[in-house]
Specification:
Number of strands of chain B: 14
Strand order of the largest sheet of chain B: 6-7-8-3-9-10
Number of domains of chain B: 2
Largest sheet of chain B: 6 strands, mixed
Shape of chain B: elongated
Strand content of chain B: 25-35%
CATH class of the largest domain in chain B: Alpha Beta
Number of strands of chain A: 0
CATH architecture of the largest domain in chain B: 3-Layer(aba) Sandwich
Distance between the termini of chain B: 33 Å
Largest interface: A-B, 24 and 27 residues
Oligomer: heterodimer
Radius of gyration of chain A: 19 Å
CATH topology of the largest domain in chain B: Rossmann fold
Shape of chain A: globular
Strand content of chain A: under 5%
Radius of gyration of chain B: 24 Å
Structural class of chain B: alpha/beta
Helix content of chain B: 25-40%
Amino acid sequence: MRARQTATVFARELASYFATPVAYVLIIIFLAASSAFTFYVGGFFQRGQADLASFFMFHPWLYLFLVPAVAMRLWAEERRSGTIELITTLPVGSFPLVLGKFLAAWAFCGIALLLTFPIWVTVNWLGSPDNGVIVMGYLGSWLVAGCFLALGSCMSAVTRNQVVAFVLGAALCFLFLMSGVDLVLAAFRSWAPGFLVDLVASFSLITHFTALSKGTLPLTTAIFILTLISTALFVNKLLVDLKKAG
Amino acid sequence: MEQAVRLDQLSRRFGRFTAVDRMSFGVRQGEVVGFLGPNGAGKSTTMRMLAGFLTPTSGHAWIMGHDIEAQPLEARRAIGYLPEGAPLYGDMTPLALLRFVAAMRGMSSAQTRENIATAIERTDLAEVAYKPIETLSKGFKRRVGLAAAILHDPPVLILDEPTDGLDPNQKHEVRALIADMAADKAIIVSTHILEEVTAVCTRAIVIARGKLIADATPAQFQAFSEWHDAVALRLLPQQIETAIEALSDIPSIYEVKRMNHAADGHDLLVVPIQGERIASTVADRLLEAGVEIQDFRVETGRLDDVFRKLTTTQH
């Protein structure tokens, strides 16, 4: 029953992405920007290597803006239009609603990612890359998008204003991205004990993504990503329930 | 018989503001309860708590015996709820929306087909079933919301202003639909249109500032009005003064008011002292005085008058 309700929400939500031109615009921006970065900034040709490292490298930074834009409407729009009253009074717990919406948004990101296949075709045509690493790169990219989406969906549940949801979502994602950068870690190193510095560093999606884009999936990364997504979705559910009581 | 809906001291506060204050009442199957009150009185908040959209701050409520907080899903299964303003997904067609609701309610595909066909027929939606909801008129949107509420043929219907914003014909249709379903359901309809109460309700509950202040049948409410059993008269213009003179010394008459003929078609309103019946006395007196009566109407009482009296007095 819960699985069917989740699937029903998923299908409705995914269809509603494609009911507005916004979805197509986001996909086009993602495709255009990811190609531009790969060729002009990443130096795809100049590197002379048959891999997609220069393609995946920029994904977390692109997601920083695009994924919160995908996530912002999930709950804020329900609240603004009042349809939240329609779905939350159906005989369904709030978790199937949260999960169904999240999965729909994640599937949407997956579709956008799959549409980058020409670059995979290109690199295979130009040389003979390790396609296993490329698959892991795609998987890693999709997982990072999932983390950002879960955070963005959470932020979407606190407001009825999509712009606010976007800004909060992007800010939260930025924190998780930046925590692994030396600039941030240096600020901690001066005073914090070593384990704390390591802890902050381990929150960094960049660190985990780098491992993935090299073709490996360390256990810590898998656990971290699963924990981050499930925690964010759990908080999301609490936020949806809290609005009823507050 | 177990009451279909029961509220016991149900309250809801928003910060320091008490929107619903210790509300208690029950509704049986077969009853259509009109929920009356000025805007902001707490009608929607009460309905939202019953439907499971808001959590009560204190108190309890049961839907078909299910506690709304302890067994929320069972309670919601028994309810058909039309939220205020009938919010809907604009990008969906009515048919897709009804399919969505049917799937969320766990209906089998045969059941879905049958229930959707019935709901569409009852709310007369066939002609727009394939058009996106955002392109529909307000009346159709409201009917889509109603169709979604009655889709699973629930024993309890909670309708928040189902006729708000509809044209007179659409209002009539919605009322007919409610009356049609009334026999085997417990229905709560909120409204601030008073004619609706006399048209469809078997009982009316008046609330103001979050408190229940009256609970009676529409007829009892009308009896409460100063217009109740008053006599409205249409007379020949030259005989109006004679008539006032003739009625001046009857003890059971409280006052004789002049009325605006153009607006109402009557010239005089004879108001009795509360509880007195004056129709035959008035008729006798006028005939004795040789006044020719053009029209003679005994008023049943005006709800808007009672409504104003009830909701504006301080408690």
